[in-house]
Task: inverse folding
């Protein structure tokens, strides 16, 4: 394993312990509201601190972009760690077991290493650019389905920014009508990993943040999937609008979404 990926895995496991310990007594966890339908708990902060301890001990000069550290770039370096300490906070505070730690390392803006760790299932997804994607050390691949009417597609609802709702519902209606089903699980990093290991055939969501998708997208790409924005282009990390799927259905999913792209 690449030494930088190894550090990311160590950090993710450390955070996983913090989160699992806290999940034994959720009633005691303090939660704050950042804005409408956007929450952060003391466990998000503690998990992020645990991750930063591990990463900065190994690489004190690297830059950091982490959700709960004010969501701004800290430090200057060609290397940047993009961190979501709990992706799926709403699930976590409800005791709904679908959340993960997401850690990516970019070098000169290109994602090179990725970890998404689901501590509840002890599922560790990893990828290094050019080396492949793995779930608990076993190689993973995207699904082979090619007919949209056989595909299960996952998505996320725009719950905190109401300005997306109408566009989103129009997209959802068209995808629902043409596929075998739609899933909304509530942790974008894991949604992407589910595409990577073929548990779903595709995924789309609007207005995400870099820490939601940086790690999961490399895992999809290294598993043989394709990641684009809603126009089929490569702006997804900046725009936060993302579509990921196996190569046989990506174009079909883009086609269903296209009439609603502004
Ligand atoms: C959220 C999750 C969710 C997505 C939201 C994200 P958070 O991340 O990824 O699936 O629909 O848009 O904000 O806030 O729980 O880290
Ligand atoms: Ca959040
Ligand atoms: Ca997130
Ligand atoms: Ca988060």
Result:
């Amino acid at each position: 394993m690449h030494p930088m990926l190894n550090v990311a895995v160590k950090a993710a496991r450390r955070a996983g312990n913090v989160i699992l310990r806290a999940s034994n007594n959720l009633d005691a966890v303090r939660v704050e509201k950042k804005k409408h339908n956007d929450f952060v708990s003391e466990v998000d902060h503690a998990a992020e601190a645990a991750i930063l301890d591990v990463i900065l001990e190994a690489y004190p000069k690297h830059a950091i972009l982490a959700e709960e550290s004010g969501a701004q770039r800290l430090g200057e370096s060609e290397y940047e760690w993009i961190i979501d300490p709990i992706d799926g906070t709403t699930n976590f505070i409800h005791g709904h077991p679908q959340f993960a730690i997401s850690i990516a390392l970019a070098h000169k803006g290109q994602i090179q290493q990725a970890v998404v760790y689901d501590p509840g299932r002890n599922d560790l997804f990893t990828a290094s650019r050019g080396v492949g994607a793995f779930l608990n050390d076993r190689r993973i691949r995207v699904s082979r389905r090619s007919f949209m009417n056989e595909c299960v597609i996952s998505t996320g609802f725009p719950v905190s920014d109401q300005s997306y709702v109408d566009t989103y519902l129009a997209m959802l209606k068209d995808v629902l009508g043409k596929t075998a089903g739609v899933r909304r699980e509530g942790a974008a990093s894991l949604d992407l990993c589910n595409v990577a290991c073929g548990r779903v055939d595709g995924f789309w969501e609007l207005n995400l943040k870099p820490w939601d998708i940086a790690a999961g997208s490399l895992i999809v790409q290294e598993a043989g999937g394709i990641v684009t924005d809603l126009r089929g282009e490569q702006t997804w990390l900046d725009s936060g609008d993302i579509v990921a799927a196996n190569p046989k259905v990506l174009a079909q999913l883009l086609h269903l979404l296209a009439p609603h792209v502004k």
Summary: The pocket of calcium ion (ligand 4) is lined by residues 44, 67, 84, 86-87, 89 (CB under 6 Å).
